[in-house]
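Structure in, sequence out. Go:
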């Protein structure tokens, strides 16, 4: 048995995954364990969690694949500083005033000197071996390019024998986007790459920050706000900053996030909605051109996407709409939390041939036994009962009565979307459901939509999917049919789009049973599904977190295993 541990230990969205005999079996983001959203650094918690989930010992790990080639020593030193309680505590506030300049200068120096970079890499690798060794892992370490990892993560899970891979994010290993060719038996060949100075991810993040939503986490708000904007001269101002040459993007006002004065000058005088529209239109147009050029160059019409920019569901829909695109696959952990699996695939394929196999579901995290769930329920201080058919009960008895349900079942999802394992559910037929969710667990703007889960066998009745793509991951929008607008208005956006999860029974039978029970009772086999977390926090990791949110966010019930906990004190 070959056991490869993939890790991402960079500054954002660190985590770990396991590839066993070429198959992705486990993956957990560090934020779920640490409870710090998008946390970076060495993923000690997720490494421990996936080994426990896989019933493996640290000594069972044969190889470690690291998801970047740039040095992480500045981050490692900074972490050591911030995590070390000592007599230096009184000095920390003074040091904090200089730490940003210090580490920016460090990175600039690192990039300007090859010799310094080599020294830095040696020290960083030594630090990484030390941290792995503390967890009992003494396997050899190999590093792989950031965007090559994104490409591998989506190619080897796409199921396409031959496809184009497009990756795009803010930056990684000096690049912001790539286009590659993947072929079964031949691996990955990079066709084009764009420097980080040309980063559309930085542009989108910079605009998001300008709008006050927060760089790195608020981009979904910008995407939603764009639907309320109009086409103005700003579209041309932004898009003219970039040139597409074949599969390469060059130049760009978004080159450096910190060049905010230049960006602010460009955006000044336009309304918020029109700014959001302009940046959304810009990324859709530019990446559509990149994909069309790649298809013209290769003749390949299947496309696989990864990288944080492809968490943008409207961008994905725009690429799907290209006439020459036959089929599309977007990795469910398209952001940096997908890097560990890509790195592990890249290491595996150094010695073995790996056939791309479609990833049919994202339930790759940890789970809890019924006995553990009962213990948490008993210690909650709330009313609870054992229900044999808890899915049927929730779907038939509670959701039709507009109850808000915390749903904690089976293995946790891989990636940022809740897909019926760590979800909050409510009736989509009631137009007031979004307001009710916003008043409890989700403090999100009114213009930001909620999304549907639908059983796969009913999808064609409610959603237009002309190319018949597989949609299990809530990572692309499609157009709602009139029937969905009438029966489930709470999950249809103002432009008639829906970010849909189509659920196949075999991959989550309990959640499928819940939706089907709701459909049998109401005539609509759809539920409103949002992630089980308070705004600004990671998705719940264990039943204790779920119970805490049940109490503090005024949910009505929590279904954890076969136990239904009511938000009423015993």
């Amino acid at each position: 048995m070959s056991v490869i541990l993939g890790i991402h230990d960079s500054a954002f969205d660190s985590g770990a995954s396991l590839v066993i005999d070429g198959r992705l079996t486990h993956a957990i983001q560090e934020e779920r364990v640490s409870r710090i959203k998008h946390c970076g650094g060495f993923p000690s918690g997720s490494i421990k969690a996936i080994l426990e989930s896989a019933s493996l010992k640290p000594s069972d790990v044969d190889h470690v694949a690291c998801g970047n080639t740039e040095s992480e020593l500045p981050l490692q030193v900074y972490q050591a500083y911030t995590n070390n309680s000592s007599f230096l505590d009184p000095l920390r506030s003074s040091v904090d005033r200089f730490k940003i300049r210090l580490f920016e200068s460090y990175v600039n120096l690192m990039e300007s000197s090859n010799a310094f970079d080599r020294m830095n890499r040696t020290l960083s690798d030594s630090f990484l071996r030390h941290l792995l060794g503390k967890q009992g892992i003494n396997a050899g370490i190999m590093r792989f390019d950031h965007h090559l990892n994104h490409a591998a993560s989506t190619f080897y899970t796409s199921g396409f024998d031959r496809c184009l891979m497009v990756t795009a994010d803010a930056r990684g290993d000096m690049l912001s986007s790539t286009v590659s060719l993947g072929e079964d038996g031949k691996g990955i060949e990079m066709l084009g790459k764009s420097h980080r100075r040309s980063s559309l991810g930085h542009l989108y993040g910079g605009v998001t920050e300008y709008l006050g939503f927060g760089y790195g986490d608020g981009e979904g708000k910008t995407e939603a706000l764009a639907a309320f904007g109009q086409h103005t001269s700003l579209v041309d101002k932004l898009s003219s900053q970039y040139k597409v040459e074949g599969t390469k993007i060059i130049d760009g006002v978004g080159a450096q996030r910190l060049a905010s004065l230049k960006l602010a000058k460009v955006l000044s005088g336009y309304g918020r909605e029109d700014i959001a529209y302009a940046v959304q239109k810009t990324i859709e147009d530019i990446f559509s051109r990149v994909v069309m050029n790649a298809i013209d160059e290769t003749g390949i019409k299947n496309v696989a996407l990864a990288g944080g920019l492809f968490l943008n569901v409207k961008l994905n829909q725009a690429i799907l709409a290209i006439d020459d695109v036959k089929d599309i696959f977007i990795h469910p952990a398209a952001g940096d939390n997908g890097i560990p699996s890509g790195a592990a695939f890249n290491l595996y394929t150094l010695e073995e041939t790996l056939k791309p196999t479609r990833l049919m579901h994202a339930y790759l995290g940890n789970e809890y036994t019924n006995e553990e769930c009962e213990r948490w329920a008993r210690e909650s201080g709330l009313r609870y009962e054992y229900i044999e058919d808890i899915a049927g009960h929730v779907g038939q008895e509670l959701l039709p009565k507009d109850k808000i349900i915390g749903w904690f079942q089976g293995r946790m999802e891989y990636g940022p979307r809740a897909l019926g394992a760590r979800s909050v559910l409510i009736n989509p037929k009631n137009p007031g459901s979004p307001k009710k969710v916003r008043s409890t667990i989700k403090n999100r703007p009114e213009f930001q939509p909620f999304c549907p889960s639908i059983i796969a066998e009913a999808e064609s009745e409610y959603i237009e999917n002309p190319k018949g793509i597989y949609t299990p991951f809530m990572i692309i929008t499609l157009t709602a049919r009139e029937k969905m607008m009438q029966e489930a208005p709470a999950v249809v956006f103002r432009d008639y789009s829906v970010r849909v999860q189509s659920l196949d029974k075999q991959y989550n039978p309990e959640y499928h049973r819940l939706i089907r029970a709701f459909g049998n009772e109401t005539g609509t086999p759809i539920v409103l599904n949002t992630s089980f977390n308070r705004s600004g926090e990671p998705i719940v990791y264990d039943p204790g977190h779920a119970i805490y949110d049940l109490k503090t966010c005024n949910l009505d019930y929590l279904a954890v295993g076969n136990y239904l906990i009511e938000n009423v004190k015993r």
